[in-house]
TrEMBL record:
Protein name (Swiss-Prot/TrEMBL): DNA-binding response regulator
Annotated source species: Cystobacter fuscus
This protein's record includes keyword Phosphoprotein: yes
Span of domain OmpR/PhoB-type: 124-218
PROSITE patterns: OMPR_PHOB (PS51755), RESPONSE_REGULATORY (PS50110)
Amino acid sequence: MRVLVVDDHQELLTLVSQALERDGHVVRQAADVEQARRALEEEEVEVIVLDVGLPDGSGLVLCRELRREGIQTPILILTAHNRVDERVEGLDSGADDFLGKPFAVAELRARVRALGRRRERASTVQVRLGDVVLDFGKREALRADSRVPITAREWSILEALASRGGRVMSRDELLESIWGDTSTGAVSSLEVLVGRIRRKLGDDVVRTLRGAGYGLGRG
């Protein structure tokens, strides 16, 4: 895969790039927002690894701008402040995954591979649930042929459940998959988001099995 790594710390930038190159990825480096923008204009990449704190701007702001421009490339955010509120802000900005510093290089490599697989699945997967159509490639949801606005955080839940092919996913598995956090605050956020999805798309889109977890559709 072609991966863009954006970080202003040269030592970390080199470490991450070399690790990904050992996995066979082609890595493009950028040290700030301007360089990242230039890289994305010059070539298409399949995953972006993006630091939050950059010398000429915020990685979260850049992430939000890319999504507004229709760029749906999976984005892994690196942050020195691994707090729930920051992860929530990042997911609302359109990020796909988070990794707090310091991190194990092996975990970063695994998360990049997972995002690459998600992109491959999303490019072709379309799920129909009654009068609801979920197009994961376009991140477009239709209900009775009318478009329904779905936030990035809500999409992350739907994508995780869709990856199970209708099988049930435990609450902790789902939380670990989308946020890497199973705290009480994360559980509350998940319940709120599932409620929003049901109000937008109908109660049958996300089902809850008491004591087991969540599934996509009626099952």
